């Protein structure tokens, strides 16, 4: 039985597909003209602010009510600044500073930049409480490990973004912090003991008036032992809508992620998410083609005809999308940029631990920098610049930098680098060293030969007793590297 045009248009009214390229493809233009809800932009769509503004204008020419979303958390997860690295530190650095006025100002500054580019939803902030330091996907994306701290900074970030006319999106409901599995690859399980702490930032975000909440592909056995939150009526309708009283838009995390698509396929997971209480389907990752977007639309429409998805539930979801589009159209802002607010925040987040009585800092001469480079999770674009070597070289010409990945940090290579650094200050840059045995071993070998070395941790600083001086940046944004370079050279 063929699907009706009206039903297909209703299914399109809840979809946010991705697409390749810096300009909208013809299929996307057609679908927008037929009422497609919105799009999700990724780094593959972004060359610069001017180009993004032209892209979003082209999208609105097809559908003036289109919603445009992107993951611009600042810090590690950046889309607008993926080519240069973020000019603002991420959430963890803001939590370390713990100045809610700073967090709100930085989010307002970010919101102004997004609004000028024509983006109406920012899939931020991460409201997760990172209570597990071995978490493979949250880490520095969270404001911290204390639920009260995360809650107050989540509220501040929401206030700042939405004051600039951009809808904030608290994620990943009901909390991805106390997990040890990346939902891109599997199904994380949330322990019952920490669920109330995990929910607190979302309660506060709702109280602040957050417009959007993104679901996490998480199994929460205390609410639903069988279905991950994205597919669970008990979590989305029972907990989020009825118990917490959220009246805004519920959008899924990337529906192609294995934690939900593995069992049902992308289309099946999408239909079940809407039936469970979600209002919009985000399609990200590498599934950014016309066939995927059409397949999801058809699967949602088919679910209505088979009784899996009540048509009134789909219509209600489409209504919430329209309401958000109306808010976005009436809330536009052209806030002026904040200039150096990102660098100032990164400077305030630096923490230095001196373990040597020798005058290690400030560095003089021409230092040698070894940067140990782990493979990051899929939320972080692998091409995002980070590190200390480049900004240090600008301050101290003659600085040399070597980057090593896991398979390259061999004993012979480390011995070679130790020889090259002989007689020069040595700086070793790590990122989440506690999570990677190869980084720990490489750092141990380097410090054994050079106990006077400075260690700069640009990830989660679980240990501060490494190196003659340990510098924790609490982030890997370019401004965090700049702030660290200023500390090393005595300028900060």
Radius of gyration, CA atoms, in whole angstroms: 23 Å
The fourth-level CATH homologous superfamily of the largest domain is: Glycoside hydrolase, family 3, N-terminal domain
**So how many helices?**
16
- Can you tell me the CATH architecture of the largest domain? Alpha-Beta Barrel
Model description:
By secondary structure, the protein is an alpha/beta fold. The chain has two domains: 5-330, TIM Barrel (Alpha-Beta Barrel), CATH 3.20.20.300; 350-488, 3-Layer(aba) Sandwich (Rossmann fold). The protein has 16 helices and 14 strands. It has helices at residues 5-12, 26-33, 49-62, 91-97, 100-116, 147-163, 195-208, 233-243, 258-276, 290-306, 311-330, 341-349, 389-395, 411-420, 437-449, 478-488; strands at 15-16, 38-41, 67-70, 121-122, 167-173, 212-215, 249-251, 281-282, 351-354, 368-372, 400-404, 426-430, 454-457, 469-472. The strands form three sheets. The chain has a six-stranded parallel β-sheet. Strands 9-14-13-12-10-11 form a six-stranded mixed β-sheet, sandwiched between helices. Helix 8 (233-243) links the parallel strand 6 and strand 7. It is elongated, with a radius of gyration of 23 Å. The mean pLDDT is 93.
Topology (SSEs and partners):
Layout: H1 5-12, E1 15-16, H2 26-33, E2 38-41, H3 49-62, E3 67-70, H4 91-97, H5 100-116, E4 121-122, H6 147-163, E5 167-173, H7 195-208, E6 212-215, H8 233-243, E7 249-251, H9 258-276, E8 281-282, H10 290-306, H11 311-330, H12 341-349, E9 351-354, E10 368-372, H13 389-395, E11 400-404, H14 411-420, E12 426-430, H15 437-449, E13 454-457, E14 469-472, H16 478-488
Parallel strand pairs: 1-8, 2-3, 3-4, 4-5, 5-6, 6-7, 10-11, 10-12, 12-13, 13-14
Antiparallel strand pairs: 9-14
